User: Fold these one by one.
Assistant:
Number 1:
Amino acid sequence: MTVDIKAKVTEWLNWDKNDKTRAEIEKLVADGKDDELKARMEGRLLFGTAGIRAPMQAGFARLNDLTIIQTTHGFAQYLKQQFPNGNNGVAIGFDGRHNSRRFASLAGNVFIKNGIKVYLFSEVAPTPVVSWAVIHLKCSAGLMITASHNPKEDNGYKAYWSNGAQIIGPHDVEIVRIKEAEPEPRAEYWDLSEFDKSPLLYSADVTIDPYFVAEKSNNFYRALNAKTPLKFTYSAFHGIGYQYATRMLREFGFSDANVISVKEQQEPNPDFPTVPFPNPEEGRKVLTLSLETADKNGSTVILANDPDADRLQMAEKQPNGEWYIFTGNEMGTLMTWWVWMNWRERNPDADLSNIYMLNSAVSSQVVKTIAEKEGFQNDITLTGFKWMGNVADDLKAQGKKVILAWEESIGFMPGHTLDKDGVSSAAIFAEMATWLHENKKSLHDQLFSLYEKYGFHLVRSTYWIVPDPSVTKELFATLRQDLKYPTKIGKEDVAHIRDLTIGYDNSQPGNKPRLPISTSSEMVTFTLANGSLITLRASGTEPKIKYYIELRTAPGKKQSDLGEVLEELNQLEQGVVDTLLRPKQFGLIPRK
């Protein structure tokens, strides 16, 4: 054991008051597991795309009682710095994972010991409802204990600022800086004996009813919903969405007879026993029970939340009896059309220069195409709702209105939260299906109608495994060497290049990108002369290089042209692999 690791172990054993995690470290020491100790003790817990996520184990690089206390101490001190004349407290929620309720209580206790009011939900609450609570209660900050769709061994720490959006710089960096500068926890932080009786502890449950009232502004066809013969199969994926999603469907006018729950996945279960991954985005292999339940009950639409109910997957039964599972980009295309159609009908004379939809840089640019044709505005953000939520708030401050934001990983922000909301999205998609059914169309039919009107926007994304982190740096370095990027990808000419790692975009004045630069992450986007897009991005958490290809065609092509369009996409994908990834040269391993 190195001197540095030995010192960290000593600090851990001195500071950790949880017998279980103390025993974990003591056993690793006794067994001489130096590599495991190093992995757990070294490394920093940093805020990523969706907060901090890590396995629940002992160690400074893991999530546990001690690191929750340390991080919250940094958060509390930073709030006191930013609001020296007093703040409006913190709203705290938690999901159904192991330790989530305890972590929420420990965090709340740290805030209270620093004189900060805490609004705590009494039971599990969806992530978007915590964002809403910050906004509704006018809190200075918010905290959600969740690892969303991560494996059961993980948990997470998702922080919000006073606008209800996730924290970005400088807030995230400063919280971590203070945490690391003042790592030793106060003894009082561990004592929860008086927590429930504290005069600074309030219930956040008062925000639940107003949340449903606010989200009903997206309910346009209540009478139609009340009489629809459609049946929707809903899965909470062993998470916390069931009570909220089924209530939202009722609020939109659907009856209990319209909604069939996947009973085996209805209640929170932190072990996620019936799915190989607790992530509905994985598609058919994790939707087995949903498909079986739907078939048994004559249901034609499946709506599945992820475990913290901030994302939504959808599938629809086709006339041939097969199930079509929509991608996030396809769902985003439908949501863009639906939100725009209904908003415009109710605001026919509005100034469209102030009306925005947002989507992320790796999502389909179909929003841009629709915006150009219909007249509203589209802004692109970095990946993740922490960026979309804050951009939406910035636009609001300028007198603009954001009516929708979404990204390809089945996340949609159609309402009053400043984070993605799988609860309101479930009801909106159900109403969309109902309206289409009344008009003799399916969701799948409508998707291809939109492609015919605006052009196909077909997206393909996957990843290749990198043998070593140094390979990632070398691969991207060769792409941008002396700013001599590839001028052709396959047979297609490259029109523009945006490299957010070095801050280069030759489609913008002075070659300066509008999107924020991120020198710590590799990401290059190629716009082709035919309007198609390719983004190459290094994963921030895994040894992977991901690519996102979007093939765009001219309007007018029908569903019968799909085979021809897919062949064009296949050729473009091969060009991306050969020109950009060069797997033989760099030893990349394809996704299995």
Number 2:
Amino acid sequence: QLGQALSTRPDILPSIYCQELAKLQDQIPPFPTHIAIKSIESQLGMPISKIFADISEKPFAAASLGQVYKAHLHSGELVAVKVQRPGMSHSLTLDALLFHMIGGQLKRFAKARKDLFVAVNEMVRHMFEEIDYILEGQNADRFSSLYGSYPMNEKDHSESSSLPNQDVGIRVPKIYWNLTRKAVLTMEWIDGIKLTDESRLRQACLDRKKLIDEGLYCSLRQLLEVGFFHADPHPGNLVATKDGSLAYFDFGMMGDIPRHYRVGLIRVLVHFVNRDSLGLANDFLSLGFLPEGVDVQSVSEALQASFGDGTRLSQDFQGIMSQLYDVMYEFDFSLPPDYALVIRALGSLEGTAKVLDPDFKVVESAYPFVIGRLLADPSPDMRKILGQLLIRNDGSIRWNRLEKLIAAISEQASDTDASWTKSSSSPLGWRSFDMRAVVSATEDLFTFILSKKGSRVRVFIIRDVLKVADTFLDGLNDDKFGWEARLVSGLGSFRHAVMLAPEMWAAMAIRLALKPQFQRFALDILSAFFAHSSHKLHPNLWICISNLIHHS
């Protein structure tokens, strides 16, 4: 257990040791059923016959910490009974002591970081939490209230009151609290199909892409929106039900990250996609991952070197982490415990999804959700990240990124009346954009561009307008229209997006047009255009403009 946990800590051990430790697997045989029954009777204080009408002779699942039996209550309900392996508390304590004994040698020969023992102590704390089944039951109830479509907890959670229950395909087993103790957990039995069972999934006519989408959306909400997350969503902890839902199990290993870290994770993702190594280095510094006084420029250069020329930069999460491992170790990164669990959760999520789709890439697939969060959240920090997504550090616009964003909104946006709902006919309903949020974000972006802070952006916009004008007019004079298709496509996507909510866009346009800053900027563009391009104007200009309007 400790070895597997350390495999997710590239800030503590060199990458070669992390890779080897990741190969460790649980290979402990199940313990005898008569010992499990004695444990149940001891924990619940009554004979097994008074607790259950029947219980399976052998466990249905077994792992290093415990095993699960199938049983019926006297009321007829089918339940799963999770029984802790005897002596787990003693074993974990012994493992921790042994690790401390050999820790000095590990630091010496494996070149482990000086804070190795701090990390190990934190991992041991998490492991003791894992063997507390009362805590696991509470985690399950909390997870159900936040993300499940069938909340099992009767208590109201304040953190979920402001969050709509959007995960219509997520199941969480009900906890039977009267039959749950620290070493015994009784919960609802949910029949399901293992995600590795390709033939049964096919026989049940389950949509693999929809299952991936359900799990991805739920995981992204956990990590980027709410903060309370399942840290080990591997195929053994997830099953598909016959109605197409995704059922989660094993809530012993959970993480909880505050908003500061969630926003930081979004910022890291955006800077990674932009290949902005300096932005990444500053992100790691602001999140407290780097020690004080570190040379940020050196970290940036090391990150840039890990990117290479772009041809070997992977969108596969494990590939990304492999590229970052050496940098994290070299510069003494220090990951907060729950952020280390984030790395584990993302790795497990991608590994699980790859069972259903070998080409799945978590970073690429998460991007629409991130864009949706950036558009929907008007807070200053999220608006700043949106600006960084579309505007380079020097003030120039990332037109390709903007073009793709407009196309995505045009293709996937939903009307405001149906925003943030899942369509029964489309498993990608959550990827839709709320048009009210899109218009609001667009207006905020224009407001920034028109402000004093946006002066450099305005200069680059004028420069780019003149370049487009030159291309346009040179195309007229040379009778070449190769540029037309892309321009028409962009205008078509924008028109489609506008037509999804014309009243909102019109109201925004009127508000902008009435601003003196906008009027001055429009005059600056026109003045620069006529001063730069008047000698290139062609007699057929207006005919071409008419054709463009007609084609768009």
